[in-house]
Specification:
Elements lengths: L11 H33 L3 H4 L1 H24 L1 H20 L4 H29 L3 H32 L4 H4 L1 H15 L14 H24 L4 H21 L9 H5 L1 H31 L4 H7 L1 H18 L6 H18 L8 H27 L8 H37 L7 H34 L16 H12 L1
Helix pairs in contact: 1-3, 1-5, 1-6, 1-8, 3-4, 3-5, 3-9, 3-17, 4-5, 4-8, 5-17, 6-13, 6-14, 6-16, 9-10, 9-17, 12-16, 12-17, 12-18, 14-16, 15-16, 15-18, 17-18
Length: 502
């Protein structure tokens, strides 16, 4: 193959601003609605049984359609998919903010998930094809990784401010200016190389199997949280998910133009990244959930104060991502950033297992947040870059979608698994300490804290497991210089050549 001079897009750094803005909007939406949910429930008269669907409708559509969205990005072109995703997300947000009843709100949340599934993989794959120089790629993914890791905490802050000082509806309306600015910027400065598209025929059986399998899996964990792990519906959903996803793999190994080329996930390094990121997100989602309730219910913080309490974690993530991960990614193998990063985060999580009714924020919670943010930022950045390093440009959308899928499924698992553990520990503690409790309120609060710490202990173990997987499975060399990643399999090394040519 004759060598071609790599095309360097002169507007790539301007493009990064608008890609990052769109990614921030999607990540914010995963948590910003959580803080507004009690107000929305009271305003619209949403029943306790339907309340969870405000979160679940978004998660099901987003998680179930991500692989399809990634393939559409490769087929249509990433810029076009990106702009369509932005426009649709803004429209769905406007409908949600104006909702007058439960049905409209739930429909709007599902629609947000549909367009989010187009937007998220197209944003990440645009970075993958626009930034090919190793040092520039490190900086670009440093920014992207910081947003992906810290955006959820920013959502808690923004959700608190908007809910407390304006109205819950603004947690939806705030997406509209984000989307408009990002879309105008995308039209003006983003260039999507036409030659990097995958124009193969769409794999319809793969789309149906992957979407239904992922929806069953995410919904299974959601039902486990509310109905229990042994409920018939829960078990049925997990069995259905296993059958559908096994059938999906079988189909993908046989069709000429698969939705998810198995070469994307069978590469040892990308498989290690997807597994470790998914586990890390399980721990992170649990933390957001429990610490938000702990600070508001136990400590009596307002929504705004709760949001700002998470700021040090965001600062730690930005520092770890841009100042450690981005600077060392081109010199140090990814596993030596990901593994230690997840382990540092687990130490921060370990500190948070010590919370009690009268815990001092500066003495315990603050250092825990700082370590957690620093570790996660350091690990996220090289992980997101490595997940799309060495793939053919025509596969960049679906490789990016797999990153988002591992995070989305991880979030669903984390919320259900850790919430179930916390609820069981809370009930057990309340029963065993009922006799000697000074008051019912004190017992209730102490039981809640005990439940949170029990779940956070599990999150510590999950983060340690993520670190171990990163160290043992990811064997790529550093991501600086050359097309191939040292230690990758032969196919990945070959795939890296055309990436560096665009």
């Amino acid at each position: 193959m004759p060598e071609t001079a790599p095309f360097v897009d002169p507007r790539r750094w301007k493009a990064l601003i608008f890609i990052a803005l769109a990614q921030l909007m999607v990540v914010l939406d995963a948590t910003i609605v959580n803080i507004a949910l009690p107000s929305a429930q009271a305003d619209l008269g949403i029943s306790d049984g339907n309340r969870q669907w405000v979160i679940t409708a978004y998660a099901l559509a987003f998680g179930g359609l991500l692989l399809f969205g990634g393939r559409i990005a490769d087929l249509w072109g990433r810029k076009r998919t990106f702009i369509v995703g932005l426009a649709g997300f803004a429209a769905a947000s406007a409908i949600g903010g104006a909702a007058l009843n439960t049905g409209v709100l739930l429909g709007a949340r599902a629609l947000q998930g549909v367009f989010g599934a187009l937007l998220a993989p197209s944003a990440l794959s645009l970075l993958a094809v626009m930034f090919t120089d190793p040092k520039e790629r490190a900086k670009a993914f440093g920014v992207f990784g910081a947003i992906a890791g810290g955006g959820g905490a920013v959502g808690l802050i923004l959700g608190g401010v908007l809910t407390e000082y304006m109205d819950w509806r603004w947690t939806f309306f705030v997406n509209i200016p984000f989307a408009i600015v990002a879309a105008i910027g995308a039209v003006a400065v983003i260039r999507d190389p036409v030659e990097s598209r995958n124009t193969s025929r769409l794999d319809v059986p793969g789309v149906l199997l992957a979407t239904s399998g992922l929806v069953s899996l995410v919904y299974g964990f959601t039902r486990a949280e509310s109905d229990g792990w042994s409920a018939g519906l829960t078990i049925g959903l997990f069995v259905a998910a296993a059958v559908l996803l096994i059938a999906f793999v079988a189909v993908e190994s046989r069709v000429k133009a698969p939705l998810l080329p198995l070469r994307v996930v069978t590469d040892r390094n990308r498989g290690g990244v997807y597994a470790s990121l998914g586990l890390a997100i399980i721990g992170m989602f649990g933390l957001f959930l429990f610490l938000t309730y702990y600070m508001q219910v136990v400590k009596g913080y307002s929504p705004v104060r709760t949001g700002f309490a998470f700021l040090p974690m965001v600062a730690g993530m930005i520092t770890g991502s841009t100042q450690i991960g981005a600077r060392l990614m081109t010199r140090v193998p990814a596993r030596l950033l990901m593994g230690p990063g997840f382990l540092v985060a687990s130490v921060g999580m370990l500190l948070l297992t010590q919370i009690d009714l009268d815990t001092s924020y500066p003495a315990l919670i603050l250092p825990g947040f700082l370590l957690l943010g620093l570790g996660m930022g350091t690990a996220f950045m090289p992980a997101m870059s490595l997940a799309t390093h060495g793939v053919e440009p025509r596969d960049a959308g679906v490789a990016s979608a797999m990153v988002n899928t591992s995070q989305q499924v991880g979030g669903a698992i984390g919320t259900a698994l850790l919430n179930t553990i916390a609820a069981s520990a809370t009930t057990a503690y309340a029963k065993s300490h009922a006799a000697g409790a000074p008051s019912r309120t004190a017992l209730q609060l102490q039981s809640m804290v005990h439940g949170y710490t029990a779940a956070i202990w599990w999150a510590v173990g999950i983060l340690v497991a993520a670190g171990v997987i990163a160290i043992t499975m990811v064997n790529a060399g550093h991501q600086g210089g050359g097309g191939a990643v040292a230690g990758s399999d032969e196919g990945a090394a070959e795939d890296a050549i055309p990436v560096m040519a665009h």
